[in-house]
Structure formats: structure tokens, C-alpha cells
Amino acid sequence: MNAHEIDYHIYGEEMQYVEIELDPQEAVVAEAGSFMMMDQDIKMDTIFGDGSNQDTGVLGKLFSAGKRLLTGESLFMTAFLNIGQGKKQVSFASPYPGKIVPIDLSEKGGKFICQKDAFLCAAKGVSVGIEFSKRLGRGFFGGEGFIMQKLEGDGMAFVHAGGTMAKKVLAPGETLKVDTGCIVGFSHTVDYNIEFIGGIRNSVFGGEGLFFATLRGPGTVYIQSLPFSRLASRVWAAAPRGGGKDKGEGSILGGLGDLLDGDNRF
């Protein structure tokens, strides 16, 4: 194997974390902000890109890091290396309620496509790059632009799904229609496109957006019930307005109450 061969255990139900066991000189790479805890003999190091092409020279490292910038991620990732004599553990936590999904890339044909904010961590040697869309519809209306992340290699990677995770195995030609934000990731054999919902009433009054994703098999698709964007919009909608004073945004009066008591700041 080119990637480090790691063992792991996932703990928890709704707020999960993954504990990765590293043999001496084994390492794992992770996005900034996902680290939870580690044993004493694990060395933490900030690296350009994902650390999968450290022998390609300065230009190769810069290109790898530059690809991450296009997905909205940092130029840097963090590597955790076991420099001790025995097995050591390092743990990474999910960013919000949901499930951590282990992806064995050797069983996915060496490649897996995921939303840019779904990746959590992976064995060192796994390449975390970008996947350009070749279709204009997907690029303009897919919710994530032309770019998604692709994980390549033969090691273990871990992605996060918000809420409850659904795993769908599609037969050749079988199609699944999904809200664009609810996609966590899918096998590289899955054909992914964006379709217009259609109909004036559906488009204007449906409340589900104008487009949905169509995923056509063969391959495996992972779906999340609670995308972070949906969670954030609900929290924002329920947040008190007017200097933090809650006047019952959920009541019948709503904003009218602000006018009646003289607070007309919006």
C-alpha cells in the first residue's frame, strides 16, 4: 500500500469522534479544527497540502496546496506522526451532530468524490484534491460550484455526514434524486448532474429550491439528513433580533411586536 495502513474505532452516537491507532512511524493527516486529543509520543506537524506528494519538490507541494485553496480550504493540513516505540492513539471529532463515515479507498476503486466540507481526516498518503465539474449545469446550480473534493489512494479516509446518514447502493442505470446540499459523497463510478425541478408552483412556492441532484449508478452514494448550511440557516432564523432582546419571533406578532414597542431597527 502507498498510504499508511491504520486501525480505527468510532465512538459515540450523535456527536461522534474517531480514534485512530498508529504504529511507529505511521501518520494521519487532518483538516484544521478537527483534532480532539492524542497520546504523548505523537508529533503534530503543519504541512503544505495533504502530504501525499512530498517528494515532488517545491513546485509540486505548492501545486498541491494551491488546489486546496480552490475548494475554500486552507493551504495547510496537519499531520500526526507516531514517533514512539509502541502503538499510539490520536482522535478527531465531528464538527456538528451527525455520523463519521469510514471510506476504504481500496474498495472504491482508489477514488471517492465528496462535498468540500465533508472531509475529516485520512491516512497519510491519501491525496485530497479537487474534482472539476465538466457540466455547466452542475457548476452553476450545484450549490458547490464547479469544484468538489476527491480523495485518491488506497488507504482509509473519514468523512462527516450531518444528522442521520443514508447509504444507497445504486445498480447500473438506477437513478436517485437528492437535494444538492444533502450529498456527502459518492463513488467515482456514479454519474452526477443537476436538474431543474420544473413547474411554476414547484419553483416559486415549493420551498425546496429550483434544482436537485440526480445520481445515476452504478456505485455507492452517501446522503446526510442535516447539511450544515440547513442547520445554520435555521439557527440564524431563530436568533433574537434587536440587540439580543427576544420578543417572540415565533409568535403571531413576530416583527410587528418590534413596531408596537417602538423598536423598529431591522
- Find the CATH topology: Double-stranded beta-helix
> What's the main sheet like?
6 strands, antiparallel
Apparent shape: globular
Global Rg: 21 Å
CATH class: Alpha Beta
Return the CATH architecture: 4-Layer Sandwich
- The class by helix and strand makeup works out as alpha+beta
Residue-averaged pLDDT, rounded? 78
Order of helices and strands: EEEEEHEEEEEEHEEEEEEHEEHH
Q: Outline the low-pLDDT stretches.
A: 140-145, 202-208, 247-253, 259-266
Question: How many DSSP-defined strands?
Answer: 19
Helix content: 10-25%
N-to-C CA distance: 58 Å
Number of helical elements: 5
Share of residues in strands: 35-45%
**In which order are the strands of the major sheet placed?**
5-6-3-10-13-8
Number of domains: 1
CATH superfamily: Mitochondrial biogenesis AIM24
What would you say this structure looks like, in words?
This protein is of the alpha+beta class and 266 residues long. It has a single domain, classed as Double-stranded beta-helix (4-Layer Sandwich). Helices cover 16% and strands 40% of the residues. The chain is built from five helices and 19 strands. It has helices at residues 57-70, 136-141, 200-205, 228-238, 256-260, and strands at residues 7-11, 17-22, 27-30, 35-38, 42-48, 76-82, 88-93, 98-104, 111-114, 119-123, 127-132, 147-152, 156-162, 165-170, 175-178, 183-187, 191-196, 211-216, 219-224. It has a six-stranded antiparallel beta sheet with strand order 5-6-3-10-13-8. It has a six-stranded antiparallel beta sheet with strand order 11-12-9-16-19-14. Strands 1-2-7-4 form a four-stranded antiparallel beta sheet, with no helix packed on it. InterPro entries: AIM24 (IPR002838), AIM24_sf (IPR036983), Trp_RNA-bd_attenuator-like_dom (IPR016031). It holds the Pfam family AIM24. This is TIGR00266 family protein.
